[in-house]
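Class, carefully examine what follows:
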Amino acid sequence: MRGVLLGFTGIFIITRLRLEFIKKMSLPFVLLSIILLALVLFIGVERNGSKRWLELAGFSLQPSELCKLSLVLFMSSYLSESKKKVKSFWLGVFPLLFLVGIIFLLIEMQPDLGTIIAIGLIFMFMLYIAGTRAFHLISIFIIGLGIGIFQVIEKPYRMARMMSFVNPWKDPESSGFQIIQSLLALGSGGLWGMGIGQSRQKLFYLPEQHTDFIFAIIGEELGFAGCLFTIMLFLIFIYSGFRIALSRKDSFSFLLAAGLTGSIAIQAFVNMSVASGLLPLTGMTLPFISFGSTSMIVSLCSVGLVLKISASPPLKEPERREVKLEKSLRKISREKTYNKRLYSRL
C-alpha cells in the first residue's frame, strides 16, 4: 500500500513538471541510481542470499529497480541530442555501453541476474527504436549473449535453474520445484478459477508466489479467463503507450514514451512466460501486480511520465524556434529569387 501511495504521489508530481526539466534531470537521476547501487554493497540488507535492498526509515528500496527508469530517461535524453550519435559507435553507443557496464557490474555483485537481463533487454530496445545501426545491435547482442552464457555456467545454481527449465521433472524437489508448482497452480484454475483468495499453491507450496509467480496465482484463482484478462490489460496499456509515442514529433518524447512502454512490456512478457514454463527462472516481477514497493513506484512513475508526454505540446519551444527560423529562411530565399527574376526582365 505504501508503494501505491508513493507511486501515485510520483504521478502527481511528474505531471506538473516541465518536460525540459525532466530531461535535464536525467543525468543526475542515473548517477543517483548508480550511487545507491554502490551503497547496497556496503550497507544493503541481505535476503535469501542476495543483498539488493536499502532500509530507509523502515522503507525497503531496491536501487536496481530505479535503474530501469533512470536508464530509459537518460538514454532518451542522450540519444535525442543528435542523430549523429545514434549512428556512431564511439559517440553514441560506446558511452552508453560503458554506463550500462557499470550498472551490470554493481548488480552482478548483489547478485541479481534477472534484473541484469531486464536492463539488458531494455537497453537493446532503446538502441533499436533510436535507429542504431544493425551491425552495432547484432554485435552487442552476440557479445552480451556470450557473457550471459558464461555467467550461467560459472554459477552452479544458475546452471541448475537452466536445467530445470529444460526438464523440471528431473529434480522435482529442488531446482524444478518452483516451475512445477507454478504449472500446477495454472492447471488447477481451469477456465474460471477457484475463486479469489481460494488458491492452495500460495499456502507454502509455491515460493515467491506474491512476486515472481503472481501470474500463476492469478491463473489458479481466476482461471484462464483471469489470465486472458490480465494479458489484455497489458496489451491495451502497451498499445496506448506506443500510440502516444508515435504521436510525438520530438525525439526525446518519442524515445521516452516508447522506452517506458517497452520496459513494462518486456517485464510483463518475461514474468508471465516464466510462470507458464516458457522461459527459465529470472526473478522478474510483474509490473503493477507483483508485491514490491520499489517496483510499484517505478511502474506508476513510468505511467506518470507517459501521461505527461501525452499532455505536452507536440513540439517543444526550441524546436518551434527552429521551424520558425526555417520558414523565415525559405521566405528570404523566395524573395531573392523573385528579385533576380525581376532584375533580369528589366
In short: The first helix runs from residue 2 to 14.
